[in-house]
Structure formats: structure tokens, C-alpha cells
Amino acid sequence: MALGALDTMGLASLERWYREVVASLDDAARIVLVGEDGGEIVAMGQLVSSGATNADHRAEVQRVGVASRARGRGIGRQLMQALEDAAREQQLGLLWLTTHDGTEACAFYEAIGYTKLGVMPDYSRRPDGTLWPGAFYFKVLSA
Ligand SMILES: CC(C)(COP(=O)(O)OP(=O)(O)OC[C@H]1O[C@@H](n2cnc3c(N)ncnc32)[C@H](O)[C@@H]1OP(=O)(O)O)[C@@H](O)C(=O)NCCC(=O)NCCS
Hints:
The protein has three helices and six strands, in the order H-E-E-E-H-E-H-E-E. Helix content is 26%, strand content 38%. The radius of gyration is 15 Å and the shape is globular. It is an alpha+beta fold and 143 residues long. The mean pLDDT is 92. The longest helix has 15 residues, at 75-89. It has a single domain (7-140), classed as 3-Layer(aba) Sandwich (Aminopeptidase). It binds coenzyme A (COA). Coenzyme A is lined by residues 1, 64-66, 71-77, 99, 103-105, 107-108, 111-112.
């Protein structure tokens, strides 16, 4: 799972990174949702508002992931539904995201109603450090 991380980061820096995310949650620009199964966290997704004065209706979906053992059971779809409900509550009606092009995530986002805008070459690195094209998606939320 990529989630913006590199293999070389190591668990300690990954943990530090997420502790910083959690510590910054009181600024209300970022919403973090997790999905639990049997008392264990198996899914996570984040929503980050644009912060732009002229785009207070727009947010980016980030770090969506379901644990390998829990995939294919509709948890990702439920998580995205919960993120979209949270967005509506905040009057956020336009969501966008990027993911590594050509991966299973593209099929997932297309299955749940996201439209592919296009692909940017060398957008970000895969966990092994290889530069990879990024696929850009958006969804306009119904009221
Ligand atoms: C992509 C991911 C979040 C999907 O989560 P999931 O819980 O397995 O997805 P769901 O079971 O809710 O599937 C929802 C729909 O997406 C589609 N889908 C999900 N995984 C798919 C795959 N590997 N290939 C093709 N379609 C897929 C299915 O068609 C499904 O629709 P259906 O219910 O009509 O069959 C999960 O595989 C994952 O965490 N992958 C690694 C991390 C990642 O790629 N994150 C997103 C990029 S930032």
C-alpha cells in the first residue's frame, strides 16, 4: 500500500508522520476516518479542504486504504461513502484525488463514481522510489 509513503521511510518515521497528522486535526481542515473490524482498524481515508477563499466547497481525498485481509468486502466503498457524508456536512460538494495510474485503485474509484480527468507523467514515487504517472479523479457530490 503506498499511501504517500516510501519503503525507505521505515516504521518509526511513518508513525511520527501519522502522529503529526493526528496532532494537527484540531485545525478542522483535515478529517480522518477509520473503519474497524472486530475492534481492529482495517481502513483509513482522509479529506482535506482546499483552504482557498474562492474554493471553500472543494476538498482532496487522501490516504485511502483498506488492509489486505479486509479487501473485496465493500469496506472501501463504505469508507468513501462515509467520507462523502462528512464532506456534505461541511458543505464540501466537489472532491478530487490522485492515485498511481494503472493500479487497482483506478478500478475502485471508477466503480464508486469518480471521473478520471487525465494522467500526469512522473507525478509521484511508488513505495520503491520509482517515479510513476498520477491519475486525477473528481466527483461532484449530489445534495
Ligand atoms: C483500492 C482499495 C481501497 C479498495 O478497497 P476494498 O475494500 O477492497 O473495495 P470494495 O470491496 O469496497 O470495492 C468497491 C468496488 O471497487 C471495485 N474494486 C475494488 N478493488 C478492485 C480491484 N482490485 N480491481 C478491480 N475493481 C476493484 C469493485 O468493483 C467494487 O465494486 P463492486 O462492489 O460493484 O464489486 C483497496 O484495494 C486498497 O486499499 N488498495 C491499496 C491502497 C490503495 O490503492 N489505495 C487507494 C489509492 S490512494
